[in-house]
Design brief:
Elements lengths: L2 H6 L2 E2 L5 E2 L2 H21 L4 H27 L5 E2 L7 E2 L4 E2 L8
Parallel strand pairs: 1-3
Antiparallel strand pairs: 1-2, 4-5
Helix pairs in contact: 2-3
Amino acid sequence: MGLREYLFAPRKDHRGWSTPSEAARLYFLLLLIVVGLWSWPKTNGNVALWLGLVFFISTPLLTVGWWLISLVSQKTETRVLVDSLHRIDRSKKQSVHLSSRKP
């Protein structure tokens, strides 16, 4: 598995629902950090204005970035979110590592 497959592979959780890829998660964190650092001096340390500016600037940037990531991810095979999902006992709809717990 290469770096491209690791970053852009769509993820499935324990219910089979689609979750964001690693690239989308990293993009979210990096964008919020960059926009937050950029906007702090612009707002002179006013927290309310800073939050508003971060949301105002990052919303369209996240939308465009996630759309571009999804275009790349369409060509990549889906992977599970965590490796322990391979050990789920499908007949009981319960994870193997949770099956020994008492109710």
